Amino acid sequence: MQYIGCHLSTTGGYRKTVRTAQQIGANTFAFFTRNPRxxxxxxxxxxxxxxxxxxxxxxxxxxxxxxxxxxxxxxxxDGEARKFxxxxxxxxxxxxxxxxxxxYNFHPGSHVGQGTEVGITQIADALKAAMAxxxxxxxxxxxxxGKGSEIGGNFHQIRAIxxxxxxxxxxxxxxxxxxxxxxxxxxxxxxxxLQEFDAVIGLNRLKALHLNDSLNVRGSHKDRHAKIGQxxxxxxxxxAVVNHPALKGKPMILETPNELPGYAAEIAxxxxxxxx
Length: 276
Ligand code: FE
Ligand code: FE
Ligand code: ZN
Description:
Strands 1-12-9-8-6-4-3-2 form an eight-stranded parallel sheet. The chain has helices spanning about 15-25, 45-60, 80-95, 115-130, 155-165, 175-180, 190-200, 235-245, 260-275, and strands spanning about 5, 30, 65, 105, 110, 140, 150, 170-175, 205-210, 215, 225, 250-255. Helix 3 (about 80-95) packs across helix 4. It contains nine helices and twelve strands. The chain is globular and about 50 Å long. Helix 2 links the parallel strand 2 and strand 3. The protein is an alpha/beta fold. The site of one fe (iii) ion has 3 residues, from loops.
């Protein structure tokens, strides 16, 4: 059985979130480390975290996949804003250290006219400054749709960030909507896409997936998520994803436009596609 879940709010505490996940059939989940469109982070509750960690273990959950704020742009052209983003990243990673063994994923950033090379250097510099040696959480770069000046819209840019950081413990989260919008044909040939991922990045770096259908055609560079089966990817693409041997055991997170009942239905659908 794969680790499948969705984005959940942790405002009621982690313990409550684990229970909610179980109620909708999830055995992993994602959460925003702070307001997704802002920068405010909630205070930590060590007791809640300790209880949640033991629940996760006991209930057989896969790694959680925290998500950094969408507004955190590590390669914005404005020096002050860039410094602030780097501080947000450092603060997020400090907080995430209380959830060892789990994942922290973020959008690499948009270079806003500075150029890809400059952007990649700035992202790598922020990561090098924020990641302590022996950091207990795996940090993940998300594959992006290549919207606007987004970095990470192809596997080579992700590879360039990994090279610039030079740490073996930096991983990647593959978003099905984003790679499709970026131009990779995961509908006709998931295998070829994963082979290219392996050749350029290395499958050993692939730690988690975001499962989203796409409202747009391949290569559109749009990044608009659709419910599973209601976009250009279609249900059969997700059957291939949940059953691909190279993706076994990697947490798969839905980021589809749904409330809890919709997520519960999509998790059930994905589980029904799994071949045992
Ligand atoms: Fe994302
Ligand atoms: Fe995503
Ligand atoms: Zn997206």
